[in-house]
């Protein structure tokens, strides 16, 4: 069977598909090829290896398991990423989950204090102290889970022993790796469910540089703050357990968006890939912040338009973007297609042939479509509201102008009843007649912005000085 002759029916841009394609152990080469192209890395600084930081290993396949109410996950797990987190200890709301995250930091701090004790002393009180701590922090009754964490901590503690078996050795490399694994384990244990669309990894370049990279696939419009939040989640844990600032990793955040985030100007509409760094406003230089934090926004809809006009450039430079937008493009069915794309299509074919995955995929697709419908509904509501507000402002201007000329409200009010209520018409009439009537009060009563009322008043030549809210003078006493 030639995979090039088969059509793919699932969309790679959906988070559940993307994560099963790029975020599964065994598919590292696909992800490495993807990253090198997306980040524009050449042979001199290309990524050559990576390690996933948020997957489990079961039969060499990365998994996120099915959700249970409390405690250990089910042993019967599908071989793909689901919409749930690895271990669902608590089935509570977001506020409670945030409290749990705070408690996990408390756990780390307490554990760090334990490391200052002698090993023998620590191990003697280990069971009592750690079990009590776990009871307070995890708030679970699952003994298996508690023993699992305790065993991990024990392994770390044993590796802190020095040659004389007396004190801990903080600089032990093996111990550091063990701690990092434990931190990842704990971070995943307490993570909110919303980062299911995230792939986190540590990449190694050709010159042995290590970079933390995180990819997000979502429809979230609050991408700026969200990105900073996730970047901080990478940086902060690197300082736990006494690490120095020099050990803060270089961080690359890649946000792949199925909507246009930056589209306020014609120029913005022509730029599909944005890269933000920390720079000085005056010199436009990164200085000491160079490469410490790089944030990418890749807007797929703009690339669709780009592909129509510049197909050859799209194939040469952005073939992975072309793949995300359409894995059935004729380019991916050619005889000379790079093998990495054949492998990627094979992975998608296997996913779409899995009935369990398709069930989750269709559920996710429905969620996305419902959310889009909701957003479109809000957009339509906004257009209607804006149109009504525009009509209201226009009619207000004509009404005020007529009243200012001396026309009586009772003679002209029928012309404005479709826009204003009887009470609102009386309020507007009082405002025109009474110079002490404040703009602020009229704006509140008509549900309009003060600046709009002020602009209308100025256009119809109504005196506004007395109608403005007077600023309070503050007397300052000098001692």
Automatic annotation (TrEMBL):
It comes from the Eukaryota. Residues 123-166 form a coiled coil. The lineage of its organism: Eukaryota, Fungi, Fungi incertae sedis, Chytridiomycota, Chytridiomycota incertae sedis. Pfam families: PDDEXK_2. The keyword NADP does not apply. This is PD-(D/E)XK nuclease family transposase. The keyword Coiled coil applies. Keywords: Coiled coil.
């Amino acid at each position: 069977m030639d995979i090039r002759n088969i059509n793919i029916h699932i969309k790679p841009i959906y988070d559940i598909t993307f994560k099963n394609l790029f975020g599964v152990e065994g598919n590292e080469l696909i992800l490495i090829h993807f990253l090198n192209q997306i980040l524009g890395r050449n042979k001199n600084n290309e990524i050559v290896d990576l390690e996933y930081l948020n997957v489990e290993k079961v039969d060499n396949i990365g998994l996120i398991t099915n959700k249970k109410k409390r405690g250990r996950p089910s042993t019967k797990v599908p071989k793909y990423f689901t919409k749930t987190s690895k271990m669902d200890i608590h089935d509570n709301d977001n506020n409670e989950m945030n409290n749990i995250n705070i408690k996990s930091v408390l756990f780390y701090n307490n554990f760090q204090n334990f490391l200052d004790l002698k090993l023998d002393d620590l191990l003697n009180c280990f069971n009592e102290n750690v079990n009590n701590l776990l009871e307070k922090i995890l708030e679970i009754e699952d003994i298996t889970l508690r023993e699992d964490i305790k065993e991990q901590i024990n392994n770390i503690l044993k590796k802190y022993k020095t040659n004389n078996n007396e004190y801990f050795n903080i600089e032990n490399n093996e111990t550091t790796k063990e701690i990092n694994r434990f931190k990842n384990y704990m971070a995943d244990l307490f993570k909110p469910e919303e980062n299911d669309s995230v792939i986190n990894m540590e990449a190694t370049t050709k010159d042995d540089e290590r970079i933390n990279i995180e990819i997000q696939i979502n429809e979230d419009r609050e991408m700026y703050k969200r990105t900073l939040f996730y970047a901080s989640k990478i940086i902060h844990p690197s300082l736990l357990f006494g690490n120095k600032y020099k050990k803060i990793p270089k961080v690359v955040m890649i946000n792949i968006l199925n909507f246009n985030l930056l589209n306020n100007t014609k120029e913005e509409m022509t730029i599909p890939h944005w890269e933000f760094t920390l720079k000085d406003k005056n010199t436009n230089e990164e200085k000491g912040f160079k490469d410490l934090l790089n944030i990418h926004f890749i807007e797929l809809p703009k690339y669709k338009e780009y592909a129509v006009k510049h197909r050859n450039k799209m194939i040469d430079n952005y073939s992975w973007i072309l793949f995300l937008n359409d894995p059935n493009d004729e380019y991916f069915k050619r005889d000379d297609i790079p093998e990495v794309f054949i492998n990627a299509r094979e992975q998608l074919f296997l996913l779409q042939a899995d009935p369990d995955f398709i069930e989750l995929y269709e559920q996710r697709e429905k969620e996305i479509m419902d959310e889009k419908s909701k957003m479109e509904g809000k957009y339509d509501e906004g257009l209607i509201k804006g149109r009504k507000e525009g009509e209201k402002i226009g009619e207000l201007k004509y009404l005020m102008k007529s009243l200012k000329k001396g026309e009586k409200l009772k003679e002209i009010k029928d012309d404005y009843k479709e826009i204003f209520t009887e009470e609102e018409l009386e309020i507007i009439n009082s405002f025109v007649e009474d110079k002490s009537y404040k703009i602020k009060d009229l704006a509140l009563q008509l549900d309009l912005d003060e600046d709009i009322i002020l602009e209308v008043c100025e256009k119809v030549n109504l005196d506004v000085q007395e109608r403005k809210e007077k600023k309070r003078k503050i007397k300052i006493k000098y001692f």
